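We read letters as residues; the fold follows as tokens. A sample entry reads:
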Amino acid sequence: MSIITAEELNVLIEQTYKVEGEFNELKASYNHLQNTVEKVVEFLPNAIWIVNNDNTVFLQNSKARGLWELLRLLELKEDDYEIGFESRDYLVKSSVYQDKVMFSVIDITEQKRRENLTTMGQMAAHLSHEIRNPIGSISLLSSTLKKRVKEENIPIVEEIQKSVYRIDRIIKATLMFSKGVQTNKSTVHWTKLKESIHMAMGYYGYSKDITCSFPEHDFTMNADQDLLEMLFSNFIANAIDAIELDENESGEVEVVYKRDKKFHTFYIYDTGIPIEDEEGLFEAFNSTKVKGNGLGLVLSRQIAEAHDGYVKLIQGDRKGFEIAFAL
């Protein structure tokens, strides 16, 4: 039996400390690498799962933890695929590395919604172009017919004109939505704009006793008159529709005007039913009204923003909208 000398023992101890030091450095490096990987995975905008062979989760980020029920529906596939879950749409990518499977899931709901809106806008614009010519002919012929029919038949012709006006509004809104709002600003007198709004209201049919009050004094704005006429017509038509759906036999629409150093501000109040779907209020083609096409409020907000202004919903003691245009 050989005897270890003190010198050999010291060397062995030094080597042990050295191995331990290298092990600790390697462990620290591994922990640093693992922390870095976890931070990178956490930083990613999509949900990430790394799953073991026994289907236990090896690694996941917070977005994945928020969708943990979705993991049960995922499958390993060569190609990317889409999956629906809780009224949302997700794009799934999957791959295998050694003994683990990685799933990457990204929410594409808004992307698909935009694509659908683009497609709907293109289709609607095409149909609007096709409809515009015959509608113009009907409008011209109805005006001629109104002058020639018996007096008792005039209300029938007027109903035709009102229907044509509604279709024309839909066509204009659809084409504007597809092309985008472009302003042609000039000096707009409120009294002239008010006359145009009154004329538009005359074509918008309603059955109840509805009174409308507007600012009486005249003032000027640097704006696009045609666009403002469309904006006010949209909001007042919405107010009339809300009153039509109310239980009362009458209602009121009131337009209030204020001006400060930055904005012309209008408040449009009505006594109709309250707005239920506040989240989808300014979403294109989203309308719960029989008469609506889902573009009126969307375009109205775009018109206000094109005039460096804004549109706000008012809910409380009085309901309505606040609309502002920059001076």
